[in-house]
What we know:
Uridine Diphospho-n-acetylenolpyruvylglucosamine Reductase, domain 2, Uridine Diphospho-n-acetylenolpyruvylglucosamine Reductase, domain 3, FAD-bd_PCMH-like_sf, alpha+beta, oxidoreductase activity, FAD-bd_PCMH_sub2, five-stranded antiparallel β-sheet, Diverse_Substr_Oxidored, 14 strands, about 30% helix, four-stranded antiparallel β-sheet, about 25% strand, 3 domains, about 280 residues
Amino acid sequence: xxxxxxxxxxxxxxxxxxxxxxxxxxxxxxxxxxxxxxxxxxxxxxxxxxxxxxxxxxxxxxxxxxxxxxxxxxxxxxxxxxxxxxxxxxxxxxxxxxxxxxxxxxxxxxxxxxxxxxxxxxxxxxxxxxxxxxxxxxxxxxxxxxxxxxxxxxxxxxxxxxxxxxxxxxxxxxxxxxxxxxxxxxxxxxxxxxxxxxxxxxxxxxxxxxxxxxxxxxxxxxxxxxxxxxxxxxxxxxxxxxxxxxxxxxxxxxxxxxxxxxxxxxxxxxxxxxxxxx
Length: 278
């Protein structure tokens, strides 16, 4: 199939892009890497009247460390991170996540902001950035606002973006030197979408953790009280105290009804915990 007819604009700067998106009574979609939108257009799953191409916006390709966080423009590609063209504030964790996304051809063109905007619960950055404690700056003609990553994806393929609004920047906190990172996903073969994702950032010295279960049929789960996974205490021996029964109960409460599916998710999360402890 081929896309339904649509108009096309390539704005010279971000204000021009926002003006195009803010046109009343015009259904518009943004294209950057096109790795998600392209197939959707061809299959006519979406039929926008206007495509706004933001690949030429230099302000969305910036990546710099500002104080205690890394600020990424939405058009930074997965390959930019994988190849080290982006400052590393996570001890290599971001590079490992980026390098595991799909295939190199996809990573060359796919953007972080585009992946987040698509809001697929099986996408790597959706879970990983929640575990990092990242925040997003969203911008429209009306101004900007900031959301925590875990509040951005509200359902499968459903984000908190409002009409005329785009992801402008991603803010990733510097990972403490004492923190441990683990990330694991289950795929039938390399390059496929994940069937289960576990992402954990654990700081035993501070007794804190961020634990995310992704690739479920709704928004990824950021576990509110991660200490319950480890017998009530996050310490140096957390790997040995991981309680699979607690993880299973959290998944059941979140609506994952199939015991087989919960078993896969629990196993993947345990692998992520083991990787963090290695």
